[in-house]
Specification:
alpha+beta, Jelly Rolls, 5-stranded antiparallel sheet, 4-stranded mixed sheet, globular, DUF1214 domain-containing protein
């Protein structure tokens, strides 16, 4: 049998070719102004694209039917999507307000868990003339529950009902426009364990139908929008729309308005700030934050704002893993090579990138200071009691990180 013998052949072939054209278009954004021309940056841009090509049809087709929901990790150590932060895991499940769901799991020891019902995706970000971020983002949080609010049994097992009539215990309401569950878990100390989750629609009795040509055509269209959107919109969309992101022309400093703290952020369960950095080969950047309570995370990202190689490199710090100086200041050092400072953030050889801050368990706005220095003069800009590590201690720290990250993802 040949192409054209089937009644759906023409539509499928045309949709596939449109997707391939969109994929070619997506690749052109690897060369945009926001991505430096250094070979390592160009290669990383294509890696960002190909990592997400690998999940495009998981999101567009395989998990898309809300009558047969699945929990999907959309970032992992080998798959980054713009805005993801080291020490988080990100999962989602497509749902519909027409159905009622049961989400079950056993609460792990991760310090923070947030499960949010996301509503319709508007044509414009509320209160602005800006379009929303590409799929699967851009929708509006409707309600959420934190891990600390979940009722569990003695072994940590819980059941959360999503949608349907209000009921006592673990329940999240939905609306006619509800379209997904957004699940984020954040880890502090190495060795904290994740919360395994599974979801089902109440009343599932029949197997999921096989995909139709029409659904496949729709999936090609969705996936094409996805791959072009992620390449086109990161990082420029955040520059345009986020109050917590510094002007890209003011590098190596956090914005004057240091915390994104809207009503939507409250439902997301976090405050945020973001710095764009640039380092020459002979430079280092000292980032200072006055210690405050809560659960905060610093995470490094590349020019497309995808997290850096957090499996193998020290690209993130949290309270449990950070050394605080005697004056009550957290000092982090960004540099291209290991200065022996405990709180070193590895640039992984990039000249440009992003440093993201999240505060999850208090509403204290952080106070940041930054200082760009010569790498050879770094120690003169740090307190005499700065915590240092030997090469052997750094190797042990990296191995501890490697094992802990693999535990989080079950790999």
């Amino acid at each position: 049998m040949a192409n054209g013998d089937g009644p759906a052949d023409a539509d499928l072939k045309a949709a596939w070719e449109r997707f391939c054209d969109r994929l070619k278009e997506a690749g052109t954004y690897a060369f945009k102004d926001a991505n430096p021309p250094a070979p390592i940056h160009r290669a990383d841009a294509f890696r960002f694209l190909t990592q997400n090509l690998g999940q495009a049809f998981d999101l567009a087709l395989e998990t898309k039917d809300p009558a047969f929901p699945q929990v999907h990790y959309f970032t992992t150590p080998t798959m980054k999507l713009g805005g993801d932060v080291s020490d988080f895991t990100y999962r989602q499940a497509w749902i519909s307000g027409e159905h009622t769901y049961r989400l079950t799991g056993q609460r792990g020891t991760a310090r923070w868990l947030n499960i949010t019902v996301q509503g319709p995706k508007p044509d414009r970000i509320p209160g602005t003339d800006h379009p929303p971020l590409h799929e699967p983002f851009g929708d509006i949080p409707e309600c959420n529950v934190l891990g600390s609010q979940l009722e569990t049994d003695a072994d940590g097992y819980f059941e959360l009902i999503v949608g349907g009539e209000e009921r006592p215990g673990n329940w999240l309401p939905t609306t006619p426009g509800s379209r997904k569950l957004f699940i984020r878990e954040a880890f502090d100390a190495w060795g904290e364990t994740p919360t395994p989750l599974t979801i089902e629609r109440l009343g599932m009795k029949e197997p999921r139908p096989m995909a139709t040509p029409g659904q496949m055509v729709d999936a090609f269209e969705w996936a094409g929008d996805f791959v072009t959107g992620l390449m086109a919109q990161w990082p420029e969309h955040s520059w345009m729309t986020s109050g917590g992101v510094c002007d890209p022309n003011q590098r190596n400093q956090f914005p004057a308005d240091k915390s994104a703290d809207t009503a939507d952020d409250t439902k997301r369960g976090r405050m945020a700030a973001h710095m764009i950095w640039r380092l020459q080969p002979d430079e280092a950047l000292v980032v200072e934050m006055d210690w405050h309570d809560g659960f905060w995370i610093f995470g490094m990202g590349g020019p497309f704002v995808g997290s850096m190689d957090f499996l193998h490199r020290p690209t993130s710090y949290t309270p449990a893993r950070t050394r605080v100086d005697a004056d009550g200041v957290v000092r982090l050092v960004l540099s291209h090579d290991d200065p022996g400072v405990h709180n070193w953030l590895d640039t992984q050889g990039f000249s440009d990138g992003n440093l993201t801050y999240r505060n999850l368990m208090s509403r204290n706005a952080a106070t940041f200071r930054t200082k760009l220095v010569r790498r050879s003069e770094l120690m003169a800009h740090l307190p005499a009691d700065t915590a240092m590590v030997t090469p052997e201690e750094r190797a042990a720290m990296l191995l501890e990180r490697y094992r802990a990250i693999k535990l989080r993802f079950g790999i």
